[in-house]
Structures are given as structure tokens and as C-alpha cells.
């Protein structure tokens, strides 16, 4: 079955904290990407805890963080981010979205994200099943994950 | 595709508050059945609110309540139940599980339920996809609903 | 020091579940009275749990429940109430506000309460330090209790 | 009335973000001091939100933050802290606890704090009414504030 979803653009990451990944290499798996900034309250309060909860509850889902910095670059560099991830006990790999001098980092622009936190779900065929900006209900996120986990399971 | 799940036993209901339903008639739909007692704290605190949330969030899921009384019969009759459902704003149909003089009402026995609240999910082919006693995380329930909504969608 | 508060009217209770009390006899103590109806969602969700929490956290505060029924009398009688209090693990004494045929029960009328849940705090001199209808923040309730506990402590 | 509490040590602050304060100057007022580190999860999740809530709910209480850094100094300097306070909408003055090369900053040592977050309440006479490490229930904090607000009110 061809995916019903548009292809998810490849991640453009300048550095990984944890194991590096590409979406191409993850074809065949369900992927959740949590895009965030370490000093964004909504990311800290609900986006990242929800991603961590998915990481724990669904071993069959690959969870990635993407640090999409578009403000306060000077105090949210890689050293600060490493401390943050360790203190807040985030255990999934986190990529740093590439900066090319534009207003927004590259991957964030390719996905047309409105801000942080944004939650992305990529299906087994690399289609973008969800792109949600802001707080996302667990019941709704669970249903999206359940559907893309079911899709292509027997194919 | 044949359901991977055991067939869900038919409901045995002595009276409906709201539109009556049978599982047989609901074949082809995803059904969530919330079994509860009106004076059970866990039912009031999380089971019923979660069922009501599913009812609101997923119009494609048929939500039913099942009043499976096994204690305090004398103060949880149909008149009390009607007041309770109205005050607590439960808007899905509720069946009263048949009493035949046994310790537990009939449908509760057929499903082998351990207590209240128990949440049941029936897939499109009438298979029992979930039978969970006690508090159930929204993320986990969402995933089950997402999977059974995906199953048989194109068949 | 004379209380800065108006005198709290005496309770008019037709029956007690647990040890009977009068405000007169409780002079010198801080008293919290949680007025409720057993099938009122706000009472079950926040009023009564908060009263129970005060009962556990502040042994020096006397906590009482008052069942102020003004609707659905037929299904919220004393037998139903006893089951409810036992199932919901309310461990403080509960009085049943006297019915005299008026729209509202007698004590509820004397206090001019708007509805349920309403939380009342009576100071050591029998003054009404708080009468609050609806949800009440823990921080705000704590501050009222702290103030009336401090008042008259050394006198 | 002489305070029943030990005198709260004076704050030793190297720099203020917002209006500077000393406890000596605040004699006669109730003061809440929230000690925190900007990358400490418990501070972000409950300590600081609770302090902000007190700041909003009780205009008669002076709320101060104290940045007691004892780890990760290199990524939690004053520039990072200013961004953090602005993003997380903390509107009370924040002092930076003086570093003198010891393991812990100076004020933190003088108070014998175990870690962050720690919540301190200073009464009108400069006595230390509360020093609590970790999560603190709103009801309990409210009661302490209510008691120290009542103390010395009429003197």
C-alpha cells in the first residue's frame, strides 16, 4: 500500500546528541520527532514529557528530538543543551537542526513549522502522518500512532 | 481479514437508558464499552470521564456504558442511575447489565471482568481488542483505538 | 480579641453519620464544613477530596460534611449517602441538613449558600471566616486556615 | 511579640535581575524566597510556578527568587538566566546567590539548604518560618503564609 501521506522531508542535522538517524534509514518504522527549544515553556511542560512517555510506552516507535532554535541562540548552544537533556532525563537521540543564517533553522523551514513544540509522526513508508504545533492530547496522539503502527504491518 | 481477536460476547442488558444497541448490529464499527458502577470512585474519577472524552473526540467510535452492579443494588437502581448520568453529563447510551441472582451480573460474568471500571474495545469484526480493569492511560487507549480503526478500513 | 467575622449560624442537622457536633460545642476550634450533595459532580471531583485532604493534613482543624440536598431527594437518602461516604472513603462526620419542606434545606438557607459544593470555615470564636461556592484553590484555602489557626492562639 | 522563629540570615546576592532587596529592608513584611537553578526540573515544574502563583494571589507577600547555582555554572550564567525568566514569565525580582569558590553559593550555605528547589518563608520580624526542600503542597504553603500574615498584624 502506498502511503496516503505526503513524504516527510529528510532531517538536516548539524550534530547529534546520541545515535544519529536519517528518515531514509528508518523507512519501515514509525517515527515520532519532537521539535523543541530548551528554553521554551510549552516544550518543557508538555511536548518533551509526552515524547519521553511515548519513548517508554511504545518500544516499536523510534522517538527523536530535534532542537529547532530560532531565538536565544547564544544561551542554547550544544553544551547547554547537553546539560538540559541530562537534567530533564530525556533518553532519546536529539539532533540539532542546521542553522544556515535564515530566520528559522533548515529542517524547521522544510516542514513549515509554526513554532515549538511541534510534534511530527512519520509512517512506515516515510509519509508525514502528523504535524501538530502546540499541546497535543495523549488520546489523539495515541490514535495517530495506533493507526500508523497498524498500517503496513502485514505488508 | 479475519479478526485477530476472540469474539466479544453479546451484551445482556435488561434495560437501556438511551438508544438500545447490540454488538451484532454494530458489526463493522469500532465500539468502546465502559463498564461501571455509579458509586465506584474509580469509575467516576477516570473511567467514565475517559469514555466521555472518547465519545467527544472520536465520532467514528460507538461509545456505550454498561452498569455492572455487583454491590449496593438497593441504592443504585435505574432511577438513581438516570439522575447520576444526567448530573455527570454522560451523553452515550447506557445499558443495565442483567441480574440473574448470581454474584455478578450476566455480561460481566461472560467477559470475566475483575471489577469496575473495566474498559472494553470491540473491533469491526466483533473481536475483543481490549479488556482492561482499572485506570488506563489515554496514550495507551488511543493506540488501541487507532489500531482497530485502521484495521479493516479498506476491506 | 473579638472575632472580626459575623457569627456562623448553628447547624440544623436531622441525622449524623459519625459523631454528632454543634458549632457551640466546637467553640475554640477551627472548623471546616464542606456542604455537598452526593450526586453533584463538583462535590465529588474537588469539594469533598479537598475536605478529606484538610482532614488528613491538619489534625487541629475539625472537618465536617453537611449533606445539603435540594434536588433528587428520592435517590440521595441516608442509605445511599452511607454507601457513598464509605465507597469514597470520607472519614469525617457528616450531618444531614434538615428538610422542612422549603426549596432549600434549613442550614443551607441560614447560610445563604448559592449551591454545592460550598466550603465554610468557622474561626475559634464561632465567626464565619469563609463561605465559598464552587472550586477553591488549595493555596487560598490554606491561607484562610492558617490565619484562623493563628488567631486567638495565644489568647 | 518576638518572633518564635530563628532569624533568617541576610541574602548575599552578587547581582539582581529586577529591583534589589534585603531582608533587613523588608522587615514588617512577609517574604517568600524561592531558591532554584534554571536547569533543575523540579524548580521548573513546581517550585517556580508555585512562587509565581503566590506572587499573583497574595499581593501582601513579597516574592523573591534566588538563583543558587551549584552545578553547570558555565551554561546558567546571568544572560541565560535572563532569557529563562523572560520565557517562563517569572515577574518577581531574582537575585544571584554569590559564588565564593565553595561547593555551594554563599546564601545557600548560610541557610543550610539541601538542594533546589527550596522554599523559604520569612515572617514580619525576620524569622525563618519555613525552609522546605522539594515539592510543597499548596495547602501546606498556604497555611504557613496565612499564619505569618496573621502574626503581628495588629502589633
Automatic annotation (TrEMBL), chains A, B, C, D:
The keyword Cell membrane does not apply. Keywords: Isomerase. Gene3D superfamilies: Glutaredoxin. It comes from Flexivirga oryzae. Pfam families: AhpC-TSA. SUPFAM superfamilies: Thioredoxin-like. One of its GO terms (molecular function) is oxidoreductase activity. Residues 7-128 form the Alkyl hydroperoxide reductase subunit C/ Thiol specific antioxidant domain. This is Thiol-disulfide isomerase/thioredoxin.
